[in-house]
Amino acid sequence: MAPRLTIAIPLHRGEKWIEGIIDTVAKAPESSRVILSDASRQDDAIERLAEIFRADDRVEVISRPETLGWVQHANLLLEEAETEFFCWMPQDDLVAPAGYFEMLVASLDQNPDRILAFPTVLRKATKGRLRKRPVGEVPFRPPPLELGHAGPAEEAVRMLRDWNLGLGCWRGVFRTREARPIPMTDDCADLVWTFSLALAGNFVWVEPARYVKRFHHGSAHRLMRWQGMSGTVDLYRAEVEARLGSDPALAENVMDEVCRYLHRHRLTMVTAPLRPLAALALDRPRPVFE
After folding, report:
1. Per-domain residue ranges for the chain?
2. Helices 152-162 & 189-200, crossing angle to 10 degrees?
3. pLDDT for 64-113, tens place per residue?
4. Strands 32-38, 94-96: parallel, antiparallel or unpaired by DSSP?
């Protein structure tokens, strides 16, 4: 049977995460293609994984001669995909249960009008002001609306405005033909990409599929930087025009909402360093750094 799903795992200093990568590959469906790709060559993780999976026909291991940033690397993997469905799987995260990927693909098969299926995202957390105590895996907030009951543009704006759209949906399985390249930016590129895809069609939440995001000091999100209002507006405008250019009035309405969101986002970026202190003061769950 020809593979229907490509699971692309870009590596960067992946040695620490080999055990989790092995677990992810073990959960890949038989009718899938797994790409392990290293474009930084800063350790021997790719060679070790090539040895581990040498007899697994689902797995292709690529050590690229060029050095690529994470957006370039992710875009190249998407460009090379030949399957109906695709997902990026960060090297440092975990999924469950064993049928995780089948659940997401099945949801898209059952909902042919949806273009992305995403899991429940959790993080390992602690609580306590003076002494940290583990509280297990804590889910992030669910979507702010019942998905599929509004048009894609309205749904996309609601998720952008009222939720962390990039956190949950970036980690989904999507229909490859609907995807555009990730914008080349250090300012929440995953969020801009996910919003763009949401403009193209409705998403579906597969609540029993569990995705554990692991936090560490080498996480890609720690490299994100606010690029300024003008440049960020241009990024969103390019995606809105690409998706909604045939309806100028709708495109302009969506951009008005995006600009309102970005003014709030700018304030959020300024106050971001205060969030851990607020979580500590209110004794809210705080992510474990591994």
Report:
1. 1-92
2. 150
3. 998 899 999 999 999 999 999 999 999 999 999 999 999 999 999 999 99
4. unpaired
pTM for the predicted model, two decimal places: 0.89
Are 48 and 38 within 8 A, CB to CB? no
> Which three-class secondary structure state does DSSP give residue 66?
coil
Nearby residues of 80 by Cβ (< 8 Å), 6 or more positions away: 35
pLDDT at res. 88: 97
Contact 27, 98 (CB under 8 A): yes
Q: How far apart are CA 67 and CA 82, in angstroms?
A: 23
Indicate if the pLDDT at residue 181 is higher than 90.
Answer: yes
Average pLDDT over residues 186-213: 95
DSSP state letters, 153-205: HHHHHHHHHHS-HHHHHTTSEEEGGG--PPPS-SS-HHHHHHHHHHHHSEEEE
Would you state the pLDDT for residue 134? 65
* Side chain identity, residue 52: I
Task: Count CA within 13 A, CB hemisphere, residue 284.
Answer: 11
Under CATH, to which class is 1-92 assigned? alpha beta
One-letter amino acid of 280: L
